[in-house]
Amino acid sequence: MLAQSTFKKEIVAIKPEHAVEKVYAELGSKHRVKRFHIKITSVEEIPPQEIKNPLLKKLVTGEEKVDE
């Protein structure tokens, strides 16, 4: 039996389909998880102020300094 995990992943993408594809690719390459084992329940755009990953926040907002 496989263990179930729930988590959120912040991805920079133009379209929701691109974000889904990137998640499949990352999980497949890093953890050897097949696509049919992955269940994506939602894809949401979040405002730049709610981005938690400091590197993504800097990329999206163009800030010079990253608050940690």
The CATH architecture category equals Roll
Q: Estimate the mean pLDDT confidence.
A: 89
Number of helices: 2
Q: Give the quaternary arrangement of the chains.
A: single chain
Number of domain units = 1
Order of helices and strands: HH
Can you tell me the CATH topology?
Answer: Ubiquitin-like (UB roll)
Secondary structure class reads mainly alpha
Please characterize this protein's 3D structure.
The protein has 2 helices and no strands. The protein has one domain (1-68): Ubiquitin-like (UB roll) (Roll), CATH 3.10.20. It has helices at residues 16-31, 54-61. The N and C termini lie far apart (39 Å). By secondary structure, it is an all-alpha fold. The model has no long low-confidence stretch (mean pLDDT 89).
State the gist of this model.
The protein has 68 residues and is an all-alpha fold. 35% of the residues lie in helices and 0% in strands.
Fold blueprint:
Blueprint: H1 16-31, H2 54-61
Descriptive key words:
single chain; 68 residues; mainly alpha; Ubiquitin-like (UB roll); elongated
